[in-house]
Amino acid sequence: MKHLTLTTVIVLVATVSTLDVPCTNQELDIPTDWIDMNRLCVQKMRTQVTEELKASMQYMAMGAFFSKDTLNRPGFAQLFFKAASEERQHAINLISYLLMRGGLTVDASSLIKRNLVPAKTSWPNGISALKDALKLEAMVTRRIRSIIEVCESGTTFNDYHLNDYLIGEFLEEQYHGQRDIAGKTSSLEKMMKQHGDLGEWLFDKKLLNGEI
């Protein structure tokens, strides 16, 4: 019975391989009335995908730096690797939104740029890295706000849904994130003034344990 089944499969495969199966996609006649995103809004969103990926790569570099055996700051590494994952997810969310609105009908692959090399790969201490992280988050926030400005008042079409999505899903998280990093920076500076390098070591342990 097993031999019979195997023979049948081989015959089917051979039969399919001899068929003239088309390998090209046919152009479909699908109405485009539902695709109503303004061209400027689409372009700004596409650019933001790259910005989120750049931020992710920068955080990845931070996490890798503080993971080095000669430095060994697992708390900082954990913080920055988590931030890298969040920024990557932001890029995925933006792509998903563009797909939902029909804003990725062409050049989808061009969203992923090749020049995503981190601007910086080393830091003198944890405070410096946290301050750079805060600047990075502030820059991302400004870019998201610029999308909202363009899609709200800079065009003839006020994209209420897109603006509501960016304000509720992105800006809310950005502001909470900025406040969190600012607070961590303040705490670390106080600990280092009080305990010197030991302060950073203690801060790292608290980061690792989720106490800060």
> How many distinct helices?
6
Largest sheet: none
Flag low-confidence runs.
Answer: none
List the domain count as a whole number: 1
What would CATH call the homologous superfamily? Answer: Ferritin, core subunit, four-helix bundle
- Kindly state the mean pLDDT as a whole number? 87
Distance between the termini: 66 Å
Bin the helical content. Answer: 55-70%
Domain Ferritin-like diiron: 35-192
Function: Stores iron in a soluble, non-toxic, readily available form. Important for iron homeostasis. Iron is taken up in the ferrous form and deposited as ferric hydroxides after oxidation.
Signal peptide: 1-18
InterPro entries: Ferritin (IPR001519), Ferritin-like (IPR012347), Ferritin-like_diiron (IPR009040), Ferritin-like_SF (IPR009078), Ferritin_DPS_dom (IPR008331)
Features:
212 residues; mainly alpha; Ferritin; 70% helix; elongated; secreted; golgi apparatus
Description:
This is Ferritin. It comes from Psylliodes chrysocephalus. The chain has a single domain (34-104, 121-208), classed as Up-down Bundle (Ferritin), CATH 1.20.1260. The model has no long low-confidence stretch (mean pLDDT 87). It is 70% helix and 0% strand. The termini are far apart. The chain is built from 6 helices and no strands. It has helices at 2-18, 39-67, 74-100, 126-152, 160-195, 197-208. The chain is elongated. It is an all-alpha fold and 212 residues long.
